[in-house]
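Supplementary Note 2. Why include the ligand at all?

Several targets in our set were suspected to adopt different conformations when bound, so apo predictions alone were not considered sufficient. For every target with a known small-molecule partner we therefore ran a joint prediction. The input for magnesium ion is given below.
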Amino acid sequence: MLYYSDSMINKPNIREQTEKREEALSQYAAKSKFSRGRLKWEEPCPIRTSFQRDRDRIIHSKAFRRLKHKTQVFIAPMGDHYVTRLTHTLEVSQIARTIARALNLNEDLAEAIALGHDLGHTPFGHIGEEVINELYHGGFRHNEQSLRIVDLLEREGQGLNLTWEVRDGILNHSKGQAEILGEGWGDVSTLEGQICKIADIVAYVNHDVEDAIRAGIISQNELPEPVVATLGHAHSQRIDTLVCDIINCSWPVSGNGNLTNPTIGMSPEVLRATNILRQFLFDRVYYPSLAGEEAIKAGEVLRLLYSHFLKHEDRLPREFASLPDNKERKVIDYIAGMTDQYALRLAEEISQ
Ligand code: MG
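The joint prediction is reproduced in token form.
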């Protein structure tokens, strides 16, 4: 087996050239060369910066592949065009990259955070997260689980060993039900992390409207008037309005003034319309879906799996059985990582 190292590549060090180009980024950008580093030291890659390397590690992870079969809002929908956790992640990544590039921030870092942010989501979307949070005495939040996956669970307990900046962005992307940019919005240490946090909302308020219309839960003409008036009538218009507004209202794109606290922001008008749209989705789509028949079934499946594997720890796959944790935690890690279909299939097998 041939392993390449810096000295074996017969070209000037490409990573160093890229790091040099990053010097032209905004003074507020996170530069890969000045990353706070990884939990375990590694020889740098001769080609890719540390953030580019993190992005690739996430894409090649097993948890990333499983996003394809995880619910966003609608559980195991019958149509091919519903958003899944994977397509949501790709939308967040594209929106985040557009904003980062426009603001002359580090696009590679924004991309890596966006691709990793939802790795810890459970099967069956938010109902799955709620049920697992109830079952496990230590509590469960998908953002914390995303970090646990990249730090520990991937590569059979070795983790992906990502940089501090990507880990910080993944852990702090979540905002619960706090108003966008309001109290409780929470802190993330880089502007690229702030971009991902807001890009997540831009993606989901728009694709969830589309999916809810597709599912017949709402109709286009029920969208609140200030939303249509401010953000636009069509899906593409609304994303465009939001992305342009964020770019315009974030710390000035040009200008050399030293800001003590540069932030990613929105105009008051667009922010208000987005909060109205988000609340509308909670009232008409998210809360009702938590009480629906499918959600009840999803809860039953997860409870069954949890009690089964607590009783039969020996049936846990080796990669979970060998974790240095208590039984409950191992079972939660296994179940939380399942796709919707895998959880349904396994529950069916167990109950036969
Ligand atoms: Mg998300």
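The domain at 48-252+264-351 is CATH 1.10.3210.10 (Hypothetical protein af1432). The pocket of magnesium ion is lined by residues 88, 92, 117-118, 200 (CB under 6 Å). Comparable summaries for the other entries are listed in the accompanying table.
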